[in-house]
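Look over this record before class:
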Amino acid sequence: MTAQVLIVDDIEANAHILSVIASDQYYTVITADSGAGAIELAQSWHPDVIVLDVMMPELDGYETCRRLKADERTMHIPVVMVTALNGSADKLRGLECGADDFLTRPIDTETFLARIKGLVRLKQLFDEWRTRHETTRALGLVSEPLGRVEVSGASALIVDDWDLGAASVESALAEDGILAVRASSEEEAIAISAVQELSLIVINLSMPNVEPLRLASRLRANVASRDIPLLLIAEVDHRDLVLRGFDLGVNDWISRPFNPNEFRVRARNQIRRKLYQERLRSALDGALKMALTDPLTGLYNRRYFIRHMEGVLGGKQPTNVALLMIDVDSFKIVNDRFGHQAGDTALELLGERLRLEVRPADLVARLGGEEFAVVMIGAGFDEVAATAERVRRNLAEREFNPTGESVVPLTVSIGGAVALASDLSLDALMRVADRALYLAKARGRNRVEITDLASNDLQTTLRGLK
């Protein structure tokens, strides 16, 4: 996963150590030696994560973080504060300034990298939603600011079989008007998350009769709960479990002894981010429903696709961008044999299948006729190829019965390209994907061809023989 990391410390040796750790993971790193310099770079360079020292002259880390979070241009950049201070009051102060985490020196390398990786993943997903919102604003469909998000009235799920521990969490959430429900088992938690609208799930890592990390994995795998923030409550010796949790998509954690004030700040930060993302999604859906969607399939149309891709590629960020071009095989035969109404049904079926098979943040568009496109940000070659093959296979295996009497094959050919957003223009990326689509058609249809331009070694995957 590529990302840009800004490290801020007035002591050159400290900045160098963290820079080496991040660079070894192939992150692009820039350093600043002051709070003012950090703010200037955050506005111009747009890092994915800011690692911010607390103790700096003139503008300390707390005030720097506060100003970053107050500026609309930088408020969505995750901030990890680093300090030699080890008091709970210092940590609480940093979190209240808007920091996403607070690490104490000497820095544990694995914990540091796990937090960076998790925050980068979250930032890139969030940027996808913000890019879509900015696209709608550029088109004049949304003009009003989204405003501040309040957590009062939000709902949280507490997964804990310890009555006293669950009561402490529920009491802390109630202080901010957050309504809590409780589950004492893995299956109960899965059932509640599937039917209730939640803004946070809190999981106790010390439950003897529940495997908390398996629960976290299942929650991330389920469509209904994959976007709900997960917050772990851990013991001091649960370091390895917490690190594994970050790999599974956990958003944050707090260690015992349970500090209700620190927990409240962490919970509020996670809930606000979730609610803000939902507000972005709602504003986007409402504004684009008529102006920028295809009336038949409900997908985005070519106009929106072009503007969105121009925004993604124009930012020149070192992030993977994948474009899948999808074309229905022998579509003219369906129209000629069964009529245009049957053709419309086939296109609706494909649009529905695409929505189900891609990630929530991926863009799906109908470009016209029987041609569709999928845009995936931050996905690697293997994930893109697997997604394309899943779409092709699932559509081919599903019976298409347009008249109630005749079952006809309905298949697609898919061509794709994976590249760094900073490397190609939209025209160039579309040409590569179109060539791959042509190759899929020429080699027999009902297959996938993906070209990887993001790695040094050019590779192509051939999938889905007839």
Q: What stands out?
A: The mean pLDDT is 87. The first strand starts at residue 4 and ends at 8.
